[in-house]
């Protein structure tokens, strides 16, 4: 069976629509288009019909830069609630704090948690370490303001999808190394972890679905420049480079079977287990990258969303 035939039939049909918004191959000249295409729509449309309170605030990112974040809570919620710090997707080059946020809004609605979603500066204008340091600074800010924000200090979780998943993994590493705020878990959805692009799944699914080998090379080159794929890339930028995964918080990792990030995600989960870290791994059959964002009503996408929610419920509420 060829690679395209391995995509779930429901998802295969959705790809024809997805390609007009998110081309399978992204080259540097497409970055301006992607910043328009993948930008979130009007906030009132995203939040329509949901019972939320949204508070916008500013935190100091890398170098003290004033950056925006939003705290989204169940309408009228009082008291201290578990918190999720969320980093958006977009290949390190595009997206904003409300991009691809639908499933995360479900967490607020169904679990009664507070969601903090942040802006971080984007490559190539802002290469590593700026995006990572912005995200780590957001964690520090949340830790310092937990009481004012109504967040449980012992129930603060990092979450992100794709590039955001890689950033969440990097921030978890730094929180351990730097003695930062305590993190109770890390939710890594089809994370962007490894700049080397050397796994079998990168070769197997090149040119297929959403986010192929060339797109990945574009994103890593934007973030790391000429050192991408070479020696000395720091693990906070590419967490797959980390030598020591001991002492990290419990992790949830999921990835599509039919996408380039499959093997690096499986390898990261395997290394977490070897380091004594609790990790739950799901490889979704027939799924392409970010299918839950682009085709949320497909059967496999619904299973992804439900299983993720169940893990969060166990970690944050039990």
The largest sheet has its strands arranged as 1-2-4-3-5-6-7-8
Structural domain count: 1
What letter string, H or E per element, gives the SSE order? HHHEEEHEHHEHEHHEHEHH
- Characterize the biggest β-sheet: 8 strands, mixed
Number of helices: 12
Q: What is the fold named in CATH at topology level?
A: Rossmann fold
Overall CATH architecture: 3-Layer(aba) Sandwich
Mean pLDDT, nearest integer? 95
The helicity comes to 25-40%
General shape: globular
**What's the name of the CATH homologous superfamily?**
Alpha/Beta hydrolase fold, catalytic domain
Rounded to the nearest angstrom, the radius of gyration is 18 Å
The number of distinct β-strands equals 8
Question: Terminal Cα separation, in Å?
Answer: 43 Å
Sheet-strand content, in percent, reads: 15-25%
What is the SS-derived class? alpha/beta
Low-confidence stretches: none
CATH class categorisation: Alpha Beta
Written description of the protein model:
This protein is of the alpha/beta class and 318 residues long. It has a single domain, classed as Rossmann fold, CATH 3.40.50. The chain contains 12 helices and 8 strands. An 8-stranded mixed sheet has the order 1-2-4-3-5-6-7-8, with helices on both faces. It is globular. The mean pLDDT is 95.
Summarize the topology:
Layout: H1 9-18, H2 31-37, H3 43-46, E1 52-60, E2 66-74, E3 81-87, H4 102-111, E4 114-118, H5 130-144, H6 146-149, E5 151-161, H7 163-178, E6 185-189, H8 200-204, H9 213-224, E7 251-256, H10 262-274, E8 279-284, H11 291-294, H12 299-317
Parallel strand pairs: 3-4, 3-5, 5-6, 6-7, 7-8
Antiparallel strand pairs: 1-2, 2-4
Helix pairs in contact: 4-12, 5-7
């Amino acid at each position: 069976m060829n690679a395209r035939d391995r995509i779930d039939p429901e998802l295969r049909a959705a790809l024809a629509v997805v390609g007009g918004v998110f081309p399978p191959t992204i080259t540097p000249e497409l970055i301006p288009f992607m910043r328009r295409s993948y930008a979130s729509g009007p906030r009132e449309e995203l939040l329509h019909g949901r019972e939320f309170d949204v508070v916008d605030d500013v935190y100091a990112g890398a170098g003290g830069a004033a950056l925006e974040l939003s705290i989204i809570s169940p309408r009228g919620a009082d008291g201290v609630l578990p918190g999720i710090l969320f980093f958006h997707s977009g290949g390190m080059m595009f997206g904003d704090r409300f991009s691809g946020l639908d499933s995360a809004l479900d967490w607020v609605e169904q679990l009664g948690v507070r969601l903090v979603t942040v802006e971080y500066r984007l490559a190539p204008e802002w290469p590593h370490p700026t995006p990572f340091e912005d995200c780590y600074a957001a964690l520090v800010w949340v830790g310092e303001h937990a009481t004012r924000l109504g967040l449980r200090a012992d129930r603060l979780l990092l979450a992100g999808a794709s590039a955001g998943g890689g950033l969440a993994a990097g921030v978890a590493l730094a929180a351990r190394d730097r003695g930062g705020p305590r993190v109770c878990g890390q939710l890594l959805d089809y994370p962007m972890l490894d700049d080397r692009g050397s796994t079998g799944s990168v070769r197997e699914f090149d040119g297929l679905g959403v986010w192929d080998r060339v797109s990945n090379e574009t994103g890593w080159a934007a973030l790391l420049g000429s050192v991408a794929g070479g020696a000395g890339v720091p693990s906070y930028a590419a967490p797959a480079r980390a030598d020591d995964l001991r002492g990290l918080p419990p992790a949830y990792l999921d990835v599509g079977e039919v996408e380039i990030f499959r093997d690096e995600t499986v390898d990261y989960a395997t290394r977490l287990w070897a380091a004594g870290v609790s990790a739950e791994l799901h490889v979704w059959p027939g799924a392409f990258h970010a299918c839950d964002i682009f085709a949320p009503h497909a059967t496999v996408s619904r299973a992804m969303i439900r299983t993720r929610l169940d893990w969060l419920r166990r970690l944050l509420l039990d």
